[in-house]
Each structure stands twice: as C-alpha cells, then as structure tokens.
Design goal:
Layout: H1 3-6, H2 12-15, H3 17-56, H4 61-64, H5 69-78, H6 80-98, H7 100-122, H8 127-153, H9 157-175, H10 184-214, H11 226-232
Length: 236
C-alpha cells in the first residue's frame, strides 16, 4: 500500500456532502424557529394593541388603517401558518382584555383581512385585485357586525342604517329638485353601495399606508398603479 493511500482525505465534504449540508442548515433552523415565534407574537400583540387603543381613545381613521397590517406583515415574513397563528393569538388576547364580543369584532373582518392581504401581497397580485377582495371581506364584516350587535342588543340595527341612508337620499333628491320620495328598495341598494364604497376607500388607504411603511422594513408589497406613484411623487 502506498503512502498516498494511507493519508486522510483532504476534502471530507466530497465524501459526506449531504451530512455537511445538513450541518450547515441546522443552525439556521434553530435561529428561525424562535425568531418566527417572537415576531409572530409581537406583531399579533401590536395588532391587538392598535385595536385596543383605537377603541378607548379613537383617533379617527389614523389607527384604523393599520388594523390588518401587522398580520399581513407576519404572512410576508413567515408564511401562511404564522399569519393564522397571529390572527388567532390577537383574537385570544383581545378576548382576555376586552371580552369575546369585541374580540370577534376585530377578528371578523380585520384579522382575516390581514391574512387575505398577506396572501395577495405575497403573490404580487395587482392592487385592484387585492382591494376588491378586501372590500368584499370588509363588507361581509360590516353585515356580521350588524347581525351580532343586533342579536346582543335585541334591536335591528339595520333599521338605523336605513334611516341614515334615507336621509342622505332625500337630501340628494332635494338638491336635484326631484319631487318624489325614494323607495325602500332604492334605499336598501343605496345602503349596500355606501357600505361597499366605504370599504373600497378604506382598503385603498390600507394599501397606501402599507406601501409606504413596509418598503422601509424590507417587506415591500406590489407596486401601485402608475397614477398613484405620480400622485405621491414616489420612486418605486
């Protein structure tokens, strides 16, 4: 046997490439697991805190815009499972702090909306698609809130919405000098259209805030339409 045959292999990774790669991956897995847990818990707590502060100290639409953003950020950073965990965790935390009813008012639609926006932003779909899907979910959330509060209060809160919309339509008819009164069907259609329009504007503002914010934390969302970039004078 020659001397060269008895020498150890100078490149052990050539004989054990799989073992070496496995050893290189293990430290990253050990770091990612607690980091994912900490970030998920932190962002779920942030979402709950934003809702909690806005409920007792309302600042208009300022905090409301950020209701779904922390959970959407969890999806962008750690994926679907972590986002659902954040949604459930925020709901449980609010249930302890404010009771199950107010917790449900956050979970539906804002926690679910955070997961939905995370999915659409992760897949880089256009704004019009994610805004439309979010508008549909937000509209369902409004009707869920009306139903839940009506059951708990024993009154039909939809009637209050109809009364407000009736006054608005009558004012519009008066301005247009239309000598007629709106029908019940027209009033109900107007109420639904008003709810959808309000949610559409809300989702647009959420996208605008997320676009400006998440770019700065290293998790950008899809680029807005060109007219939005020109309006904001923003270099995408």
């Amino acid at each position: 046997m020659s001397i060269s045959d008895s020498l150890p292999d100078e490149n052990p990774s050539a004989e054990f490439p799989n073992a070496l790669n496995e050893q290189l991956r293990r430290p990253r897995l050990k770091v990612d697991a607690p980091l994912r847990m900490v970030e998920t818990a932190f962002l779920a707590s942030a979402a709950s805190l934003i809702w909690f502060i806005n409920f007792y100290f309302p600042l208009g639409p300022v905090l409301r815009i950020f209701f779904p953003v922390p959970i959407a950020l969890v999806y962008l950073r750690w994926g679907r499972r972590a986002a659902w965990m954040a949604a459930v965790t925020s709901g449980l935390l609010l249930s302890v702090l404010m009771g199950p009813v107010r917790s449900l008012l956050f979970v539906m639609p804002f926690a679910f909306m955070g997961v939905l926006l995370g999915v659409t932003w992760h897949r880089r779909v256009p704004w019009i698609v994610s805004i439309t899907l979010g508008t549909l979910l937000g509209t369902l959330g409004v009707f869920f809130r009306l139903w839940l509060l009506s059951v708990l209060s024993g009154e039909d809160l939809w009637i209050y919405v109809i009364n407000q919309v009736t006054e608005l339509i009558e004012w519009a008819f008066l301005r247009l000098q239309l000598l007629t009164s709106p029908s019940v069907f027209l009033v109900q259609i107007g109420a639904v259209v008003l709810i959808v329009f309000n949610n559409f504007i809300y989702l647009f503002m959420v996208h605008l805030a997320a676009w400006l914010l998440l770019d700065r934390v290293g998790n950008p969302i899809p680029r807005p339409p060109q007219w939005v970039q020109v309006l904001m004078d923003y270099e995408g």
